[in-house]
Amino acid sequence: MKTGVDWQAVRAEFPSLRNWTYLNTATYGQMPARAVRAVEGHFARRDETACSDFLTWFDDADRLRTVIAKLIHAEPGDIAFAPNASLALSWLTSGLEWQPGDRVLTLRDEFPNNLYAAAALAPQGVEMVEAPWEEFHGALGPRTRLVLLSEVNYMSGFRPPLAEISRCAHEAGALLCVDGTQSLGALRFDVASVQPDMYAVDGYKWLMSPNGAGFAYVAPSVREKLRPGVIGWRSDRRWRQVASLHHGEPEFAPLAEKFEGGILPFPSLYGMEASAELVLEIGPEAIERRVLELAALVRSALRGLGAEMAEGPLYEAPVIAARFSGRDPSALARELKTRRVLVSARHGNLRVSTHLYNNEEDIERLVSALRALL
Fold first, then answer.
1. Could you say which of 280, 311, 343 is where a domain stops?
2. What distance in Å separates the CA atoms of residue 35 and residue 269, rounded to the nearest whole number?
3. Given this model, what pLDDT does residue 3 score?
4. How many CA within 13 A on the CB side of residue 2?
């Protein structure tokens, strides 16, 4: 556990915060200066070497797999890179053998990725079931084949008890896919504790990465039987032998990288590596504590302004959803933007989100601006 973090020094890594009160990571994360330098360094290296060392870029990507694996307590071979969480989820939904009557279960008001996932499966007779949390376990019937959940709900900040759900899903014979896009980088995640079959993350939010940098943890037991949905020149296990690439049916490696198919978005991955290393450098436990402390301050301040919010242990998250009676949250968000305070509106809620680069002064500026508007 890291103690005595200089949060002001951390904040200095994010130049955009000099001009904005930014409480909107649930929409977009800010990139640290070190990530920008990492991306620029890759382009400079291309010029210096004329890309003659391109195979070593894959070695660098494997180094990032190790960083990500350390962050979520997995093995490097469990990590596959994906440009977004949607594609990673499609690996799972398109790679399974579905039967008529199979069900995909998710929570009501989930992120559209999880709500839309079964749409393409409808011709195969797969049914989508959306259940409120109070009825979720009852909906986990014998025909449930796949459970889709976000670690933190994008709209409300709801945090389902994933370890409990994982146990119940697996007892029912279902797979569990967790989307960590709205959490990893702010909250800790341990694949050994939760035991998801897939954990997909788009890094552009809480992992403070460029667009195109994402990954999926794919459990060894799942990738053994999951058909790759993308087939490309790197599908064959001998892809590094570029002077004599294999011609014929590909032989897949047992590693998660078999789902990647082709070339990787190296500039974005170098940026994600720098940001992920920043998270490890500060310490995931220290970050989670700081982020949740700031979120608690936001809740207290908004409550003092008359906001209505869902409360309780399952809402202890860096995403705070508030409603002000008689006030349009979209209009409030637009007015706050004119005051250089960035938040967002989602489904009738004013959504405020805290991250490691925020501080108490950000919250004070938000409260001051809201008080003037309300």
1. 280
2. 10
3. 59
4. 17
Domain shared by 117 and 224, yes or no: yes
Are residues 274 and 287 both part of a single domain?
no
- Average the pLDDT over 118-131 and give the result: 91
Q: How far, CA to CA in Å, does 372 sit from each of 90, 302, 369?
A: 46, 13, 5
> In the structure, what pLDDT confidence band is assigned to residue 117 with cuts at 50, 70 and 90?
confident
In a domain, 163, yes or no: yes
For the chain, the first-to-last Cα distance in angstroms comes to 41
CATH of the domain at 345: 3.90.1150.10
Shared-domain flag, residues 261 and 305: no
Beta strand residue intervals within 165-225, DSSP E: 175-179, 198-202, 214-218
In a domain, 1, yes or no: no
- Please state, for a pLDDT cut of 90, what percent of the chain lies above it: 96
Give the separation between CA 203 and CA 182, rounded to whole angstroms: 9
* pLDDT score of 120: 83
Give the position of tokens 């210096």.
48
- DSSP letter string over 44-84? HHHHHHTTTTHHHHHHHHHHHHHHHHHHHT--GGGEEEESS
Are the CB atoms for 373 and 330 separated by under 8 Å?
Answer: no
Look at residue 2 and tell me whether its pLDDT is greater than 80: no
**Does residue 293 contact residue 359 with C-beta atoms inside 8 Å?**
no
What's the pLDDT tens digit per position in 295-333?
999 999 999 999 999 999 999 999 999 999 999 999 999
